[in-house]
């Protein structure tokens, strides 16, 4: 297939611009990875025949990067290559083989290179044998087109927007774009796309796409679905069958193609390759106004995909209070003196109903079955990162084999800053508590989390200009992900300021139904190729108030805990020297901690500081000191300091600890703010304790084991095999790239 020299040169320049941005030589290019990648793939939409050219250029650059040991090129180029292959109209056997050989060659590289290469090698092996298989699987899964008994794992995408963080303009823009996309992507249209792409990928120019599209357009929806099922069956049969090659698969599809258009006299012997749209995922936008909204949406998703007959009321059980140890729900009496049959209740006449109906009740499961379900459901997560280990867990877990059960997948996109992610961590913790307490009654789903940073219109805090930048940063999680994964930095972090700007622009009128708006296109790309999670430790905090009549409070946070000393009550301040009460904003705080060491040894310490407060952060400032621990920042006064002087920001002392206990030594109390959110503030606090949040299932099982053996230090049974720490996975393109 011939291409003009100008077209090849233009594509090559776009690829080289992406690589220069990865080198950091041009900051402007480095911040425009997403736009450069977008324009490269849009050139494929404008000219479907350029797919082979783009694949050829990308594989040349990959081979050159492998020879010259410029490894930071490999993952971005691989993702760009696979997306091109998925959308390309036709790829030759020679190119498929060349890409497949390269993926096998880099299996000797360390993680995450070998992990991604293995995944793509398996995809390419199937794609080479059955061209168009990746596209068919992608669209079928994202649009939930399967309706037969062999229904595969279904995908549901939920986009959560907190209206207190995200501006009204951004909310309206995303709602408008997703709704417009859903209206233009009916199930019948998506089925037609799959049929057309399968024929064109297998037959190339022997497929008259325009004629095929006209035939499908004239058919009623029922017949389109029948043809879709027949093509789908042929594609999946070829993918499963051993020893079959591309030629036999093409022959099968040629027979189906002949039955569809063979009677038409308008068919031409040779046709040009045509653009087959790749519909964006079905994204449901939700305004996140209720703390239990995530749980309720997951219940609805699982009911839709599994067609369960369980009533929704059974999942609206209010959160049960905890006992003193905070891991076991209080016992609720379920004894009843009646038979449980409504007709036997007093005051009910027998003639009202002859049908026997049971009252709603709780069915008690045996301990063995409870343990089996706990083991099945709670050992699938990756092992928790030990406190003090270098860097966070990254990549897909390989500890548990793939599940035979067809559970739905919920892809949850959080749009916002660290406040929104802190809210997510709290909702995720609540979900896991319900899952651990009621393993038989909790509907299961695979959860995948995605973070698209967007700066809110205003932050809840009022940062001082003299504070270090890390103290004013409201997107620490996404900043960290950008440091460890450059492709996330260039494609997703650049949306931080771009989305608010684009939302203020009037919608661009276009008649091109195949073109998605930029924000929706980048979000779809992130959902499809952001498959390597980075795990973040969630921390729990137990709060003790000055008023001893109040019960201690419990909460969780993900990125930051801000501690400030409250002013003294007026009656107390009057007993102090007036000048000192006005000028001295610092007070005494005692900190007891377990020091974080890379050796994972426990070393306890205690100190007393005179400070105006503290900031406890979980994300380090740089990669050199990337320990999974708490970073406690204070503006401690030295002996030579005088009251009323301000401590220099650069001299803030930092303490790295696995767990922290802090209390005020004076009559002044503490104010706590979690994850920079003014809605999550605790006042009149006397002391608090911070430690890594334990997996609720592990805590519950450990408590049961200890009570059964009578030993508070006993850890046996299933708890030995369970994940101990509660980790929040956030998907990226590469995970953590070391070095």
Report on this model:
It holds the Pfam family PI3K_1B_p101. The chain is α+β, with helices and mostly antiparallel strands and 739 residues long. It has 4 domains: 1-131; 155-184 and 282-317 and 363-536, no CATH class; 186-278, no CATH class; 539-692, Probable inorganic polyphosphate/atp-NAD kinase, domain 2 (Tumour Suppressor Smad4). The protein is 41% helix and 16% strand. It has helices at 5-23, 27-30, 33-46, 51-68, 74-87, 93-105, 113-129, 133-143, 168-184, 187-203, 209-218, 221-240, 246-261, 293-306, 367-378, 418-437, 469-472, 476-484, 486-493, 495-503, 518-529, 570-573, 578-583, 696-709; strands at 155-161, 283-287, 409-416, 446-453, 532-537, 539-545, 553-557, 560-565, 587-595, 603-611, 613-617, 630-634, 653-664, 670-674, 681-692, 727-732. The strands form 3 sheets. It has a 6-stranded antiparallel beta barrel. Strands 2-1-3-4 form a 4-stranded parallel beta sheet, with helices on both faces. The chain has a two-stranded antiparallel ribbon with strand order 5-16. Helix 3 (33-46) crosses helix 19 (486-493), helix 12 (221-240) runs antiparallel to helix 13 (246-261) and helix 16 runs parallel beside helix 24. It starts with a helix and ends in a 7-residue tail after the last strand. Mean pLDDT is 77; it is low at 308-340, 348-354, 364-370, 397-404, 569-583 and 638-650.
